[in-house]
Amino acid sequence: MELRICFLYGGLMNIYGDRGNVIALAKRAQWRGIAPIVKIINPGDPIDPDYFDVFVFGGGQDKEQYVAARDLQKLNGERLRVAVDYGAVVLAVCGGYQLLGLYYQPWNAPRIEGVGLINSYTIAGNERFIGNVIVDSPYGKLVGFENHSGLTYLGEGVEPLGEVLKGKGNNGTDGTEGVISGTVFGTYMHGPILPKNHLLTDHILGLALSRRYGKIELSKLDDTFEFLAHDIAAARPR
Ligand code: GLN
């Protein structure tokens, strides 16, 4: 078995260690005898919508977001939508999450049209949310770090990834963090999120593999250190 991972705009959208999400997926596949294949798609490279099992789309500042958004509008947005139709899983973080919604309205700058894969929209606020986050989710307590000024609001037909226990989350007001929209996951949690939250990693891994192999039972790993690190982070947020 192999797991085909796309690090979408990896050279551009990769802030606060978001590349660690690719490494966590690849390692947890490899430890189970599943061969990971990682490809970086840069602006100008066309995505083959039938190839990838999972897309990892990291965060970036507005400057990088404009470049990524232009490529999504011109070339890859439609390809990504088709890939999701074919069952691919997407994990998008912060700036990437914002670009998968309907639009992102930066502060004092032209609106960026999104891919529309998620029924959400984002408007830049005048406050920056910086700090550790804890979220109650179907995959246990998720721990991470947020740094954004964009305020994301979810529309009909999508679920939040979880409920904020500490931090600000999507917009600092409605108590939601992130989104689950079919096989598309969005979150503001850097950290990166997956190495710190291996239950979510395994959920995404299983979902991604099911695209080509059907539902499979992932073998158990020794997660002593993962649980320890996670529990320390969840118990002592600063
Ligand atoms: N530019 C966005 C914001 O500040 C995204 C930042 C990020 O990806 N960390 O809201």
Automatic annotation (TrEMBL):
Q: In which pathway does it act?
A: Cell wall biogenesis; peptidoglycan biosynthesis
Q: Where does substrate bind?
A: R128
Write out the GO MF terms.
carbon-nitrogen ligase activity on lipid II; glutaminase activity; transferase activity
Sorted alphabetically, which InterPro entries does this protein's record hold? Class_I_gatase-like, CobQ_GATase1, GATase_3, Lipid_II_synth_GatD
CDD domains hit by this protein? GATase1_CobQ
UniProt cross-references to PROSITE patterns, sorted A to Z: GATASE_COBBQ
Catalytic activity, reaction form: beta-D-GlcNAc-(1->4)-Mur2Ac(oyl-L-Ala-gamma-D-Glu-L-Lys-D-Ala-D-Ala)-di-trans,octa-cis-undecaprenyl diphosphate + L-glutamine + ATP + H2O = beta-D-GlcNAc-(1->4)-Mur2Ac(oyl-L-Ala-D-isoglutaminyl-L-Lys-D-Ala-D-Ala)-di-trans,octa-cis-undecaprenyl diphosphate + L-glutamate + ADP + phosphate + H(+); L-glutamine + H2O = L-glutamate + NH4(+)
CobB/CobQ-like glutamine amidotransferase domain location is 4-197
EC id? 6.3.5.13, 3.5.1.2
Q: Name one GO biological process term.
A: cobalamin biosynthetic process
Keywords per UniProt? Cell shape, Cell wall biogenesis/degradation, Glutamine amidotransferase, Hydrolase, Ligase, Peptidoglycan synthesis, Transferase
Active-site residue numbers: C94 (nucleophile), H190
What family does the entry list?
Belongs to the CobB/CobQ family. GatD subfamily.
> What HAMAP family does the record point to?
Lipid_II_synth_GatD
How it assembles, according to the record, is: Forms a heterodimer with MurT.
Described by its record, this protein's role is as follows: The lipid II isoglutaminyl synthase complex catalyzes the formation of alpha-D-isoglutamine in the cell wall lipid II stem peptide. The GatD subunit catalyzes the hydrolysis of glutamine to glutamate and ammonia. The resulting ammonia molecule is channeled to the active site of MurT.
Question: What is the protein name stated in its UniProt record?
Answer: Lipid II isoglutaminyl synthase (glutamine-hydrolyzing) subunit GatD
Q: Record the organism.
A: Thermobaculum terrenum (strain ATCC BAA-798 / CCMEE 7001 / YNP1)
The gene designation is: gatD
